[in-house]
């Protein structure tokens, strides 16, 4: 078995009396899409934050590329190649779509402290950004102010910014949310290819997408992983059906 | 060329031609007035880097303005009285040379901005406004009660400092010095806004979380911007002191911070020429209205109100319209 | 310094703190809860004091003066809100700064135009003048005790208004998303006019109450403005409790700093320069306090953690 | 060719009352003289040093004035006077008299028609001695004028000090200071708290139940302020080089005509503005302003009828004059001052010796 | 008379036109699905109805009243309950305060909402900012119900909800429709669920109504053309 790119080991985190993560362990292997599902408030986003660095676990460790990154900041983890999208879009609304994408490229190049050369004239950066926009289908909108995008278009841009980082692993918090049926379908196809560039930890409530994409699924309930397995395993897992899927699956 | 660019060019040219006209028409005071506009605009250009680009609403930029002013005041005072500034551990003499004074003003205010910024940037939003105000006030009270350099009375430098090859006492020559520095600062600010740094800083203002997840530390971006901003405002302080041949703690007062900020808002926040337009309008109003009535502040207030209510985005915002920043 | 004097100075610090809260109460509502930067708060304070002084001079009644201060400032507040502030909620904070700065100019010079350039007379009513003896033998002006009582009552009232009433909930909701609260059926415009007028009225009342032991003159509002912002920010924006505690902290720091610092410096300096250095430091003290509080707790003592 | 006078004074904002009085006093004298050869330009400095400097530049560069005057505040004077006199203009101070300009920084073209800053405080110290005060508690704001004030008091005062406090500039609450006074064993209080600070202090002092005698310079007991302080000031002794009841013809005429012209009693500042204008007029009668040396001599002679009686300049161009003790009294509805006696006779300032010109 | 009717409504964001000719009709007690790809003007239509964006042209009526004459809060008070896109809970308010801030008396009260979304009851005193995404979504629905509207407008109200909750919400909507006769205008991406609940559908394309009719008449041909499924 190959070494996991990312692994979460016995992570716990409380908010007051609420246990948001309870001894969670999971990993992400090269080339896979590992879906993380679970009821609302189960602690998925909280776990993502602990992986990405916005929140420290009370106990447990996070390893990335073979290194213990638990004590590292978001910035340091991002520089190691952890690409993240947000559940609620975090974009520079006053800037153009292209500028948002270039920002990601800039971070990847790690050279924001240049004061003189106009950034838009930087061919390399621009190419990275435009490629990413093209891949999510936003290249036509490159010159538009981000605040003028519809909700769904912003979700696409979220993904594009993460792409420009050329990350070693993706962590995506509900990328499908807000995408229409066609958008979801398109993104599903896209993620399916993307997994070959870097594995994806995917939090998603869109079961069509999850079942179509996931190599493995972990189910988080009340901060605890109650099951990990293939699509089939999870679909037929009685407890998962009761706590999460309902009659749908 | 966009409307804003045209407007900026007109403004830049106007600020140059007006004093030249005054020179020909032998109206030396008009030159002084234009010099004042240029210098205060320079202070605004400094603040605008923090405020417009970085979203760092500092109500403490008077601190840097004052430090620049006192850098000039103290150096010139010692040069004038032939007393060394410092004897141990090594001898430092005062000076009356502008370039030296400018360097000292830049360095001193940058250093102050580094310290104040490092502490203040732990906070954000309105808290940031208030903590910068607090630092400004500390320096204000310190300057008032520090007897060595005149306390509240300030320091008078009877003769303007010198610049190699120029007669700084000639209003038009001093104006040109200020104008060239302002132009340089504007060019720098324009470049900064378009640079990778500007892009990142501007994004950090809008969504700091995102900037972190792409591997850039917002705190460091902001601190850098704050230091650059403070240094430019400090340089303006040194020039302002030289214009008046006088420094006093009022340069440190929160009203000074407020005034610099008002120039920016009036002209247009985050607009390259915002501070220039704002300072020019404000000083012109002050000059014209001041003669009208004892209660001219009322007219000034009404005019400012009209600008806020009907000229969205300041003067430049109104004339140039909404455009995507730094394209 | 004797123990009793120390106690008295602590009392003075507390008293000064409550007085600060009183002057900041209106701002707490407008700035802390509605989220509007109102630099003209000091002007409303001044309007209250002038209205009280003019009315008291005309009628000889302090109580009527207080009523007038409340009414005049609230009316000015409502007017300003409807004509100016209303258009600025959806704008940048900076536009509010410029607009309310303009209002300061208009109010200050307008007041001078109406009342002249000289300070006005406003004094403590006879019934409240002079000192009373507190337990322990401390003589303390009755009027100041009254101010403490009024200040605490207003604190309590505001606290209940903001945290316990639906009105308070709606104001806070409006602060975070005006469009949304309107789309849920709340007339946020009228609500904000009322709240702004209330904040202005409180500022005016404070101006009258405090004006009776200070100088009623143009420009009296400016130092108040800065201090009011300081206490609210130290306490944490949006928190009435924070504002009260911030006020008391600032009051104590300022009073005790001014008394104790020069004494401390006298231990190792000659008296004259000790007084000078000590008081120089004392005048910076509240700003040092504010900076330290914000460095340690970037959203104030009781502010919501972002 | 007329003499052009540039007046830079504070006409807006909180400190406007003083500037307005100086201006009104000055213009009254100009009007009474009816001399068409004097032209006055008046500008508002907003009490900001940099604005004052700018106005001075303008008056010198564009308006081409011969004489500058009008500044109320020491810090503004320090900003304007040195460069104005260096550019060859006359400056006549109707109010501020910072020590720097009386001593080392004196200048042949600078004349002070009011007082050196320390004068009234020195007189207060002298009065304290004569009144048998032995243990004063003294306080002033922590800035140069405040430090000068306490220094001035102590220069003449011979008793002990029960306490010495510097308050914050612009302070409005004095509970802590009053508590310290109460706890000390002082037999009197001397304070210098100009403007609103003095009003606040006096009101709070009166309400505190402490009733030690109070001494101070005239600034906190001036006509413009007294009505705002009210009964709290009654009985306070204060020192001044002028009062409306000084018995001479010039003063009587001044007080009457001022009241008639403006509908209020003149203040100390009005008297100073009035004297300043008359000094200029007296010099104009003797010399052409363009002949600087002659005009300077004419000013130095100070041959005009000062409303304070005898008036002459010392070697540093600062007044040598009597300084009186006044008491705050009530006349009908109006609070005003009454002269008790002379505190210092023919008093010159302490810095004259340092002036070399 | 229809409860809500839009006829040829147009609207602008600044200078750019977002709606051209939107027409739709919601009858008393009916559930209407508003459909279209991303960026086609669904949310804009809803904003226009709620007077958050001025209508530049066309007719906009609710229950016989001309909405174009009313400010936002008056329009809402006629009985429009909005669950906005992106939730827009008041982050500085507690869950309970969010629910009560704009509550109007009627069928829905705290108790009923708590029955519908028990988790909200558990988080009653917590600030809305710290809720999970899905919890915020439930809060937004609860908040709209608390105003006891006659027409409930749901803009992507099931976005980010767990499948089981989504089923519950659809069930709840079905119950609402059945028992209270509440009219509903719903935007959602799940065609499957819309088919079960909606009576009628309106399809937007580039700010224009391009199709409307009974839900059953929405053939795969149409959904393929306009919705991309
Ligand atoms: N800062 C906080 N303080 C208190 N409670 C918190 C905080 N942040 C999150 N919580 C609580 O922790 C729980 C887990 O939240 P989290 O956002 O991780 O859920 P989630 O699994 O991502 O849910 P969803 O699918 O709805 O987004 C929720 O009940 C939430 O209310
Ligand atoms: N605030 C805005 N300013 C300018 N243009 C906007 C704004 N909001 C939306 N638009 C534009 O209006 C059009 C319609 O947007 P709208 O949000 O109504 O779409 P939608 O159908 O709700 O899409 P989605 O399913 O993605 O939410 C889009 O092209 C969008 O770019
Ligand atoms: Mg989540
Ligand atoms: Mg939408």
TrEMBL record, chain A:
<protein>
    <submittedName>
        <fullName>ABC transporter ATP-binding protein</fullName>
    </submittedName>
</protein>
<keyword id="KW-0067">ATP-binding</keyword>
<dbReference type="InterPro" id="IPR003593">
    <property type="entry name" value="AAA+_ATPase"/>
</dbReference>
<feature type="domain" description="ABC transporter">
    <location>
        <begin position="6"/>
        <end position="247"/>
    </location>
</feature>
<dbReference type="InterPro" id="IPR051120">
    <property type="entry name" value="ABC_AA/LPS_Transport"/>
</dbReference>
<dbReference type="InterPro" id="IPR032823">
    <property type="entry name" value="BCA_ABC_TP_C"/>
</dbReference>
<dbReference type="InterPro" id="IPR027417">
    <property type="entry name" value="P-loop_NTPase"/>
</dbReference>
<dbReference type="Pfam" id="PF00005">
    <property type="entry name" value="ABC_tran"/>
</dbReference>
<dbReference type="Pfam" id="PF12399">
    <property type="entry name" value="BCA_ABC_TP_C"/>
</dbReference>
<dbReference type="GO" id="GO:0005524">
    <property type="term" value="F:ATP binding"/>
</dbReference>
<keyword id="KW-0547">Nucleotide-binding</keyword>
<keyword id="KW-0813">Transport</keyword>
TrEMBL record, chain B:
<feature type="transmembrane region" description="Helical">
    <location>
        <begin position="172"/>
        <end position="193"/>
    </location>
</feature>
<feature type="transmembrane region" description="Helical">
    <location>
        <begin position="223"/>
        <end position="240"/>
    </location>
</feature>
<feature type="transmembrane region" description="Helical">
    <location>
        <begin position="30"/>
        <end position="50"/>
    </location>
</feature>
<protein>
    <submittedName>
        <fullName>Branched-chain amino acid ABC transporter permease</fullName>
    </submittedName>
</protein>
<feature type="transmembrane region" description="Helical">
    <location>
        <begin position="260"/>
        <end position="285"/>
    </location>
</feature>
<dbReference type="InterPro" id="IPR043428">
    <property type="entry name" value="LivM-like"/>
</dbReference>
<feature type="transmembrane region" description="Helical">
    <location>
        <begin position="62"/>
        <end position="80"/>
    </location>
</feature>
<feature type="transmembrane region" description="Helical">
    <location>
        <begin position="126"/>
        <end position="149"/>
    </location>
</feature>
<keyword id="KW-1003">Cell membrane</keyword>
<keyword id="KW-0472">Membrane</keyword>
<feature type="transmembrane region" description="Helical">
    <location>
        <begin position="7"/>
        <end position="24"/>
    </location>
</feature>
<keyword id="KW-0812">Transmembrane</keyword>
TrEMBL record, chain C:
<protein>
    <submittedName>
        <fullName>Branched-chain amino acid ABC transporter permease</fullName>
    </submittedName>
</protein>
<feature type="transmembrane region" description="Helical">
    <location>
        <begin position="225"/>
        <end position="252"/>
    </location>
</feature>
<feature type="transmembrane region" description="Helical">
    <location>
        <begin position="142"/>
        <end position="162"/>
    </location>
</feature>
<comment type="similarity">
    <text>Belongs to the binding-protein-dependent transport system permease family. LivHM subfamily.</text>
</comment>
<keyword id="KW-1003">Cell membrane</keyword>
<feature type="transmembrane region" description="Helical">
    <location>
        <begin position="44"/>
        <end position="64"/>
    </location>
</feature>
<feature type="transmembrane region" description="Helical">
    <location>
        <begin position="191"/>
        <end position="213"/>
    </location>
</feature>
<feature type="transmembrane region" description="Helical">
    <location>
        <begin position="273"/>
        <end position="296"/>
    </location>
</feature>
<keyword id="KW-0812">Transmembrane</keyword>
<feature type="transmembrane region" description="Helical">
    <location>
        <begin position="101"/>
        <end position="122"/>
    </location>
</feature>
<dbReference type="InterPro" id="IPR052157">
    <property type="entry name" value="BCAA_transport_permease"/>
</dbReference>
<keyword id="KW-1133">Transmembrane helix</keyword>
From TrEMBL, chain E:
<keyword id="KW-0067">ATP-binding</keyword>
<feature type="domain" description="ABC transporter">
    <location>
        <begin position="4"/>
        <end position="229"/>
    </location>
</feature>
<dbReference type="InterPro" id="IPR017871">
    <property type="entry name" value="ABC_transporter-like_CS"/>
</dbReference>
<dbReference type="Pfam" id="PF00005">
    <property type="entry name" value="ABC_tran"/>
</dbReference>
<keyword id="KW-0547">Nucleotide-binding</keyword>
<dbReference type="InterPro" id="IPR003593">
    <property type="entry name" value="AAA+_ATPase"/>
</dbReference>
<keyword id="KW-0813">Transport</keyword>
<dbReference type="InterPro" id="IPR027417">
    <property type="entry name" value="P-loop_NTPase"/>
</dbReference>
<comment type="similarity">
    <text>Belongs to the ABC transporter superfamily.</text>
</comment>
<dbReference type="InterPro" id="IPR052156">
    <property type="entry name" value="BCAA_Transport_ATP-bd_LivF"/>
</dbReference>
<dbReference type="GO" id="GO:0005524">
    <property type="term" value="F:ATP binding"/>
</dbReference>
<protein>
    <submittedName>
        <fullName>ABC transporter ATP-binding protein</fullName>
    </submittedName>
</protein>
